[in-house]
Design goal:
This protein is mainly alpha-helical. Helices cover 67% and strands 0% of the residues.
């Protein structure tokens, strides 16, 4: 078995054993396990659990961190920092800056705060820029843009370009991809935002890669779902990213063969892509074109999208009930 898949399953089974019936949605645990694998960090249950409890105890009664989504954030902090409890304290301060700038008090705001956590200076300025980017998104696509876009607004705020330049780039990709047959909607908006993160690549070449990667999905018997658009963006920012599909396909089938994973094939596909790209970026410099400093950011954006989708589905289910 692929070493990433083996480690992923090992962590997932340990989490299920320790947490038993805490989760109604197993995808939360899959996200936690995947975070450790993508960042190539060892999983220590005691450390992870202590951090999760610390976050819960330090949060107000109505805080989103009282919910099970704190586990995904705990995994992110644990893999990004050698002092995760200190980083949690800093994340709360960034969260407060984002709220002060106009963001809502949601779990997505905490994810956005974690995105900005590594920026040591000017966090208030970045929080305001993130809010301005979100407003620009909302102005262009009022019905598509929701709280789930907070993390991506934070990711884009770290770019040196102005809000106006970033907005122009995002809209260019959105309209051009629409002309090339991509379906309009939130997934296409997310794809256009991901493509806006790296400025070193030729726009026309990026669009051609998106088409190539998207058609490769069908060639390797994957359905061309709009929810895979962020994954298309991740691969399109690589030189010949479509050549990774044999590896992705093999890893995907390994994950589907696991009893604990077989009912979540869409997430298995996204994890297979994340594992393959993160490993490829470590082993082969020539595959990456202008992406050495942003590959982690792109994967982080994809993880934020998956988390957003899970939270949105849970909210819809609760509303229906």
């Amino acid at each position: 078995m692929n070493k990433n898949a083996e480690q992923y399953v090992k962590i997932l089974l340990e989490l299920k054993d320790k947490m038993k019936w805490k989760f109604a949605d197993p995808r939360n645990l899959m996200m936690v396990a995947g975070t450790y694998v993508v960042h190539n960090k060892p999983f220590d249950w005691n450390k992870f659990h202590a951090l999760s409890e610390h976050m819960k105890n330090e949060s107000s009664f109505f805080s989103p961190l009282k919910s099970n989504y704190r586990y995904t954030l705990a995994a992110g902090l644990d893999t990004l920092s050698n002092q995760p409890e200190y980083s949690f304290s800093r994340m709360v301060h960034v969260y407060e800056d984002l709220v002060a700038s106009g963001f809502g008090k949601t779990v997505f705001t905490y994810i956005a705060a974690m995105v900005l956590l590594e920026e040591d200076q000017q966090q208030q300025k970045l929080a305001q820029k993130a809010r301005d980017i979100y407003k620009a998104m909302k102005k262009e696509h009022s019905f598509l843009t929701t709280h789930s876009d907070y993390p991506l607004a934070a990711l884009l705020a770290k770019e040196k370009d102005s809000v106006e330049t970033l907005t122009e780039t995002m809209e260019y990709y959105y309209k051009e991809l629409k002309q090339r047959g991509f379906r309009i909607g939130n997934d296409l908006q997310f794809l256009s935002h991901i493509l806006s993160i790296d400025k070193q690549l030729n726009r026309t070449r990026v669009l051609e890669r998106c088409e190539t990667v998207y058609h490769a999905l069908e060639e390797f018997d994957f359905k061309q779902k709009t929810m895979y658009y962020p994954t298309v963006g991740l691969l399109a920012l690589l030189e010949n990213g479509e050549q990774l599909f044999p590896t992705i396909k093999a890893l995907y089938e390994q994950l589907n063969g696991e009893k604990s994973l077989k009912w979540n094939k869409d997430l298995n596909f996204m994890m297979a892509v994340s594992f393959t790209v993160s490993e490829e970026s470590e082993n082969t410099e020539t595959l990456i074109t202008g992406l050495s400093t942003t590959i982690e950011t792109i994967i982080q954006a994809q993880q934020a999208a998956m988390t957003a989708a899970m939270i949105g589905a849970a909210a819809a289910s609760n509303s229906g009930n």
